[in-house]
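Thread: "does anyone have the structure for this chain?"

Original post by V.I.:
We have the sequence but no experimental structure in hand. Need at least a predicted one for the grant figures.
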Amino acid sequence: MTTQKMAEHKRYTFEVFCKTVLRNKARNIHKKLNRIEQREVLFSDMPAELEAMLCREDDYDLTVRIPIKSNGKKFFVENKALAAALTILLPKYREVLYLSYFMEHSDSEISQLLDIPVSTVNNRRMSAIKRLREKMRSEDEN
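Reply from O.Q.:
Generated one for you, tokens below.
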């Protein structure tokens, strides 16, 4: 067999292999889509009883919420002991807790907002949490 015929044979064999792989992959995708279509139930097609079982409403007693102010920003806390402990904290600690837990900012974002180093943000948050724990434990003991 000549070199040219050998190269042509390899090319032909590779093309057949590629076509086979693509055809099998397409079959698998179609089978998968058919399985999904058979098992899938759209919410619009779902009976009301079943839909009611999937839904849940949260119960919040909004009358128990205690407002806390921090640097002109107002946020609400539902736990009286936590609210009392937060009001005792220094504003710089309260601000870091507010931005971190209530506004869900990262340490780097808080660092940029307050114009302080990231390590200071972390230290303030840890100190604030430690003070909150101490205050709340002392209230629990009383």
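V.I.: this helps a lot. The longest strand covers residues 66-70.
O.Q.: and The chain has six helices and two strands.
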